[in-house]
Amino acid sequence: MKEQQLVKVTVPSKWGDIAIFCSDLGIAKLLLPKSKEDVEKYFTRYFGAHKIIDGTSALATFAAEEITQYLAGNLKKFDSPCDLRLTPFAQRVLHELQQIPYGTTISYADLAEHCGNPRAFRAVGWAMANNPIPIVIPCHRVINANGKLGNYSGGIAMKKALLALETKASGK
């Protein structure tokens, strides 16, 4: 199998640098500042032989600009392609996440229902916890049924701030 090249770019944010990793097909991974995930382990599991290079590509530049514009409150929908290599169920969950309108939230149970299995809210939570591209695939828009925020790979403060940004930018 041919070694896959992944281009890494960083976008500064008030929480720290956000790392974006792009394959030839799209954004493969977005690592939030507080994440403790082992990126090498992730890419070995889902991409096999790979090489991460600091640099740029048209796709990485576009993705970085979209993240920058989103964090400034100027972008409501991402156009960057995503390179998702997950189970079919996880891909279904992440697709449904992308349908949640900017500035709104839904519960894990609601998301499970949108995925066609209302009792699978724990499996939905697992798929979201393994979302390789947070922000672009907006898992921060899913909250507990009781209104509490729930977990987020970037930390609760970041989740709260992203929801506030979207609320303000959407005029709600």
Describe the protein in words:
The structure is a single chain. The chain is α/β, with parallel strands linked by helices and 172 residues long. The chain is 37% helix and 16% strand. It folds into 2 domains: 4-71, Double Stranded RNA Binding Domain (2-Layer Sandwich), CATH 3.30.160; 88-169, Arc Repressor Mutant, subunit A, CATH 1.10.10.10. The strands form 2 sheets. A 4-stranded mixed sheet has the order 3-2-1-4, sandwiched between helices. The protein has a two-stranded parallel sheet with strand order 5-6. Helix 4 (108-114) packs across helix 5 (121-129). The model has no long low-confidence stretch (mean pLDDT 90).
Number of helices: 6
Distance between the termini: 50 Å
Taking the sheet with the most strands, its summary is: 4 strands, mixed
Helicity, in percent?
25-40%
Main sheet: strand order: 3-2-1-4
- Pattern of helices and strands: EEEHEHHEHHEH
Q: What is the arithmetic mean of pLDDT?
A: 90
Q: In angstroms, what is the radius of gyration?
A: 16 Å
What is the CATH level 1 assignment of the largest domain?
Mainly Alpha
Strand content: 15-25%
Poorly predicted segments: none
Q: How many strands in all?
A: 6
CATH topology of the largest domain: Arc Repressor Mutant, subunit A
What would the principal axes of the Cα set say about the shape? globular
Please state the second-level CATH architecture of the largest domain. Orthogonal Bundle
